Amino acid sequence: MKKIRWIVQENNYATADRDKIIAACQQLQLPYELVQVIPFATTLPDFSIDKHHENIYYGSTTMMERVYNDLGQPAGLFYDETTFTMGNYINQWKASMLSSEGEVLIFKQLRERDYPQDTRFFIRPNADSKAFAGMVLTFAEIKSWYDKVVQNEAETVNATTEIFFSTAYHIEKEWRNIVVNGKVVTSTAYRKSFELYKSATDVPPEMIRFVEERCREYQPHDIFAMDVAKCSGEHEYYIIECGCANSIGFYHCDIFAYVKHIGEFLAAKINNKHQA
Predict the structure, then answer these.
(1) What pTM did the predictor assign?
(2) Residue 13 has pLDDT above 80, yes or no
(3) Hey, is 96 helix, strand or coil?
């Protein structure tokens, strides 16, 4: 029977989150290893891989990209580049997405569009990547940024980067939910009227129901994060985006619950598979 082991990035900027993961592993008597990820390195740090353990990874997006590229799709990396895209979420959840009318196109195509200069759009990478942070810009600002990107030949964003863009909405409040096998195991509010707002108690039951109902329709993975919004003047909830649970920010999520439920689910899944 395989046991769970956590591989945790030690030089993670979110040191408090890292320490809570370590504390949870200790409390649950789960082995763990700390690794140093060297910025801009092209190889993975050393850590144990053996037939007696299934590793679960936590760290930066850079670390997860290296795990994904070097190790394929290990069971403890909860990611699939074909499902974790804004285009896929809209195809699957349609009107339940906040930006259901949004489009996916390459950056150059967006630059060539003809919109009023002061029109505000939300833009972000189509992929679940940190090529750039999602943001609201006027069309004039988008064009100016594109021109700088092309001129500077930035490594993370270029003329052919797939961009998701949509109308900008006034969001009243935002929540992050960690989903394991269709159930929300922990949630946090993280933004209110575009300002940071962290709360583990301001989590409406109807918001949780919304997430789990959407999970019965579709899930990009067995384990993932779903961000949900409520817009000003509306009573409905909408999906903003989903993300890889291996490299999320927790805000005020219950990290012990995160470690416990993910570990229990994965242990049951891999051991049932080996016994079948």
Answers:
(1) 0.94
(2) no
(3) helix
Which residue carries 């863009």 as its tokens?
Answer: 165
Right CATH number for 3-77+259-275 from 1.10.10, 3.40.50, 2.60.40, 3.10.590? Answer: 3.40.50
Of 223, 158, 150, residue with least CA distance to 186: 223
In whole angstroms, what is the distance from residue 36 CA to residue 59 CA?
Answer: 10
Contacts of 84 (CB under 8 A, 6+ apart): 127, 128, 220, 221, 224, 242, 243, 244
Q: Kindly report the CATH number that applies to the domain delimited by 170-243.
A: 3.30.470.20
Tell me how long the chain is.
Answer: 276
Segments making up each domain of the chain, as ranges: 3-77+259-275, 99-167, 170-243
Per-residue pLDDT reduced to its tens digit, 157-212: 889 999 999 998 889 999 999 999 999 999 999 999 989 999 999 999 999 999 99
Q: For residue 244, how many other CB atoms are within 10 A of its CB?
A: 24
